[in-house]
Amino acid sequence: MDELSKPRLKVLFYAVNGLGLGHLTRMMSLWQGFLHQQKYLIEPFFLTTSHASNLLCRYKIPYVQFPSKTAVSQNPTWGYRAIGRLYQALVNDVYDQFRPHILIVDTLVLGSHFDLANLLRFGNAYKVYVHRARKQDAYDAGTIQAQRFYDLIIAPHYRGSEIIPLPIEHDIPLYWSGPLFFAGNPVSRPDVRNYLNARPDENIVLITLGGGGDTSNQELFQEILRLITALPNTKILLGRGPLDSQNLKITSKNIIETNYFPLSEWYSGIDWAISAAGYNAFHELLHAGIATIFIPRQRGLDDQYFRAKRAAESEAAFLVNPEQEIIPQLKNILPLIANPEVRKKICRNAQNYVPTNHTADIAAEIIAQYTELQNTVN
Predict the structure, then answer these.
(1) Are 86 and 77 a contacting pair, CB within 8 Å?
(2) Which of 33, 123, 126, 259 is the most exposed place for a label (fewest CB within 10 A)?
(3) pLDDT for 241-251, tens place per residue?
(4) Beta strand pairing status for 126-130 and 152-155?
(5) CB 136 within 8 A of CB 163
(6) Helix, strand, coil abundance in the chain, percent, nearest 5
(7) How far is residue 335's CA from residue 88's CA, in Å, rounded to a whole number?
């Protein structure tokens, strides 16, 4: 069937920003998954507050960027309610003009400032909620019950690996999909190493502590850089993240900075890594089979420590406890990750821990559920 002759399917993606890129890139992953299906011509549109919205522009995805909570909160004339009214007005206008067939929302069930409340109650789009698990003490009854406004809930985790609270007395379908993450076009190991000008005897170590929105990283970054720079035959690839604005002092010629996206395209050339344990980076690194030392960051909703701890217990990664002194723990782990046999075992276990990117599966499930509902209604 010719592409332009296919029925159009308008999909509205809602991705507010946290401190990183997780919300935005998960929605970009789903957009990518929709492109692989054959039945519809997908017409996407993004609503986002992310300061990294230029990524959408790079992939030629139309979008509207709202002012972020961080930016607006720095203006003392704006209060919480005023921000909420602004968000709601913008969301409603985009929805009314775009008139989507499917609305997909990531993580925040009612929106950043309850700005989705009207759309969820009265909008006639097929509504999908991507329920990335959060800390159990971060749930409240209202948040859980608000899921009743959705037609389908996606849990981007393996069945039983997380607790996903569902609304009481509402039979909303829950689809355990397994992980999803943004996939680019992998670059070969020789090409990566040539680009980074790495000698045959050099290890390339990736250091990345998130998308860059967390300004508390700077001191830790510097300490880690000093420690790893001192290792022999080591070149550091410093993943700054598209949101990173930290003023780091780079004093070694063996440190190469990059904010390239998606950095996972270069993973074939990485020997091992030090990373935060956000949802996206965690699954991308393990899926690529990279031996990684995870340093979980403290987050309001996301339990990075729990995520990394389970991988370490399966010998799929190394774990640094963020409640203890980080540098002494790193010093103890370095001899292990430097051992080729140990690293080989960790790499193999990592790939077994996250064997598949389920982006296409999720897109197929959403389309199947949407199509079935349309057939029932018609």
Answers:
(1) no
(2) 259
(3) 665 666 677 77
(4) parallel
(5) yes
(6) 40, 15, 45
(7) 53
